[in-house]
Amino acid sequence: MSSAKVIVILFFYTCTVRECVQHDFEPVKTALLQTWAEKLYFELWNCGEYITNRKSLQSKYNKEAKLEGRNGQVLAANISSVIKSMMDKKHQALKRILDIVEEVAVSAHDKAAPGNEYKVRNAKPKTATVNTSLPLDYLTVNSHFYNTPVNVSYSSVHVPTYVYDRASDVIKAIKWSEHLDETFKKNYEKDPRLSWQYFGSTTGFMRQYPAMEWPNKPVDLYDCRMRPWYVEAAASPKDILILVDNSGSMMGQSKIIARHVINTLLDTLSVNDFVNVLVFSNVTNEVVPCFEGLLVQATLANIRELKLGVEHIAEPNNISDFSEALTRAFETLEKYRERNMGAMCNQAIMLVTDGVPENFYELFKSHNWKNGTMGMPVRVFTYLIGREVPEIRDMKWMACANHGYFVHLSTVEEVREQVVHYLPVMARPLVLHQSHHPVIWTPLYADVIDPKMTDYEWEIKECLQQRTDTISYKKTKDQFFYPINEAKRKHSRMKQELNQNLNINRQKKYNLITSLAMPAFDKKTEMTKVAHLLGVVGTDVPESDLREAMSPHLLGVNNYAFIVTNNGFIVTHPDLRPVFEDILKPNYNSIDLTEVELVDSDNNPREFDQSILTLRDYIINQTTGDQEITVKYHYDDMRRATTADRHYYYSVVEGTPFTLVVALQEKHFGYRVKIPDRFQSLNTTRASLLDYFKDDEWRIHPDWLYCRYDYDEDNRTSFKSREEELRHFLNRISQKNNSWNKWPPPRFYSESYNSNGTKKSEEKFDCKCDKDLMLNLIYDANLTKGIFTEAKNDTEKKKNPAAVLMSLLPRTEFEKRFGVTLAFVATHSGLTRWMDYDNYEDKTKIPSDSDDSEKNKKHFIDENVYSIEEVWYRRAVEYNMVNDESYVYSVPFENENIKSSLVTASQAVFVTSKENKKKAAAAVVGYQFRHSALQELFTNITRQCYSETGCTPEIHTCLATDRDCYILDNNGYIIASENIIETGQFFGNVKGSIMNMLVEEKIYKKIIIYDYQGVCFKPDKEDDANSSSFLYTPIHHVKQLIGWLIGRLLWLAAHSNFQWMVSQAQAIFEDIPDYQEDEENNYSSDTSSNLKYEGEKALKYVMIHRTRPKTCDRVVNLFTLASKIPEKVERKSCARPYELRKIMNTNLILLVVNECKDKLTKTVKFDTLPQEVPYNESLSCHKAANSLPRCRPKTACIRTHPDEHEIYDKMCGKGTTIAPTLLVFFFSLFNFI
Known about the structure:
- The protein is of the alpha+beta class.
- A hairpin with a 4-residue loop joins strand 31 (820-827) and strand 32.
- The chain is globular.
- The relative contact order is 0.13.
């Protein structure tokens, strides 16, 4: 550093210190600071009490309501029993479908395939074979099927794009499967909550009930044989080792076909399977180096990692050493077999090559035939690549001699259809046993969405972002690179990428389900053993049905239930966050229990505490019991966190791999409100039920079961909303002789049937109601009716001088002073009421363009209908444990429109037992008011001396230039500041050194939260060092044009045959319009020329960095106010640059910072945005090296049968022909032209 620079720095430092000394660190007088805090409390408290009428509601609840304790073990047992009954009904429906499938298949065996006159109800709209399809008529929207237009009179058929739907075996099976329609309809009548029913055939088609038109946007990749329910039911769990030849002959088309084979094989695996991919030439290596010597669980994240490894296989070279590769594969499988690791059932080697030098008889004899050929542990499947292969005999012999299957693949088009042939082979032992039809339950997954769509949709989103940025540059290029605009774009993208906290019950784009399925066998008797798998029958159980079955209103606020599989993965959980930016996360369905229940410890990431590991072991091994653990958890978009003692009660869902867990905070939330006896029968209130719901300013929880018709098509009226539906049922309940059902909710009752399928004894009700929830709702409606209009006439309030003053103020003056816009109350039964206040602003003002955000702002009730699940409800109830008189205040985080921001205040209403002082949350009251009113109140109070002797406003109040004043909430976010743009920001981002002192002095406590469901974004290309690599040249556009033409022709040949690639460029150019075309006419030629001139220098800065989503762990430091912070915090030393006071009966503190002293403290930076946790390797590698135990599914492992050898002599493989594909190609080409 030069001497001149040192002199300048010393000069400014000296000036700063001198300025501080001259001000002599004038502190805020203790009494004055206390006065400010008291006046803020007085204004806020009395406004809240006056607006919400809290005390009146509190007294109403305490007058009659009682308490009853929550018994966690009983709740867990009841809920698991309810879910078991629900699953039993689905299982019974499946058995009926299965019986018909196997019966009809036998009777149709000798019948000829139907001719071209036979027409199919094809689910695909406007197909090329429309002349052979029946129309799907009279499709009506059905709320039970996700508001999809369906026809419940018949089923429809879906055939994968690359399967020829008029092939004799396909059309014959489609024909005889029509007989399933009657069974489908009867099942739906018996169980009106039954979801989709389907039969997936080994030929590729799927028959689904009810009939629907198949979505084909952006592309139809669906093949039932690749779905979890089919894969798991078709064969017992399996260990798979894929060996891919990378010798010098595997160049060009052979390499492409080989990669497609590997990716297709990986797509056919489920979470109960284990896999690895080895590439070999003269040496053998794993495609993912850190998976060396391992078989990894076939989760979406691991499959994704393997596919990326396959994508980066080195260029083919050298001569392959097959002996080393096969020996290594056999040794790895033997290790897992002997140590009882992996799938612990089937094992197979998949060999992908363009030829072998010999049949390796001796190698198989020593490794696979130790117990003779009848007891070989490993099957071998061989995939011969290439058109002109000199010899197939050895390849076929290897498969036939090892109970496998041989396939010869000449083109990419046939890969997906031929690769899946290994599944029926793996299923042969099951078929030969005949009598055993295992029922399987899948983990959570998205209905018809292909996992590969994550990358595709992210690429589309980035294209749209690029389009937006480029258009913005063209319009405002002079201001585009202004620092403030760059900062806004960066902040906007950061918020988008960090928007990963949408809970499972709030996302609406994807239908998340678990399925149960059973394999169907061909039972025809023939002289030659065939062991043919007909397919798989299945039905879905929506995740929302599981949540509903848990009766969350019985669990109460801050308590919940969740389900865990035998693998330790979550099926449903309030902190399961499967979506980011409306896109499925790469590992959305393999989130472990330990990744959502975070123990309150100081351990490093993924160093899970022994207490949670012990709980996990009990759960996956399906035992019944309980355990208490201190945990930490986040909420409010991972901006807030706290700790709690949770008691976990777990109970097995019999007959499934699921365990139900109930988590209770018994210390604070172990009781619930019990309504008075006079409301239990409704005898005295029936006539007045509708009176409680006369106005329209109320909503009910959208996901809870109050009352509902069983059959959507039987509705007596078309309901526009849940509220209209409720009124309808209240009217029915008010009628005499109406029947009520009891716990459990009747829609989940397990009815019994006669052998002919008729119900034995129960009367069929056309609607179902949860009596307990309905009674609580009616009781809450009775107490909260007119609660806000009572405020003016409440005589008790008039005893308070402040309340008298407020009541005397004209309404417009009151609203202008406090800026109140809305009051609300939400109850434990899911009822939310509100009352709007007229805006105090001039109604005659004509809105300007700058008012768009105000006009488009959503009403409070549009986003706050989930009552006990809302953040303001949970925070109010939680903070009641700290101070039972407190209002909890919050403002939007980092809101760009601060002037129109609203402050939300809420306080809990508890019912307290007179006998033991126990209490239960009954409701939360609250109100919203304009932040500008709070800002004005804050400024006016903190700039006055209030008769304090020796006080000068310009020196001793917040008017002083060297003093900053703040109101902070209990999590460190700025509620009010002299600089209004700091509102909603984390205080540590504004005053890091002061925040650090607050933490060190234990005023705030730091809570480290690890987000194990994170998504991070790595460059799409490893060598992408800067954005200039995306500057498109003319050569690039020519290459894109050629690629588009080739892609278009290949699309005609086989719609999805190139889906092995992780992303598809051609699909993007097909769906995203060229922004240069649709925007060019909006600008003059002069503008275009300027853009071209400036683009040469500036366009590279406009281009975004293309990324690819990847799973990652993230960490964030959050803070919470100490529970025992004193009302007065005295200054400990003259060097301390701040003073604070607790604002009584709030979650707020008043903080005064001496700016001069703060300049002399060490700068500390805080960041409350999640950051990626750095590991020395990828997350998948880290998890593979530290894998958690799992429990194998309890279904029987059937992997061998003594009669198999009769099949393999004649049916162990064949070469394939591409004639059907060519037929589709030419027909499609003709149609396209």
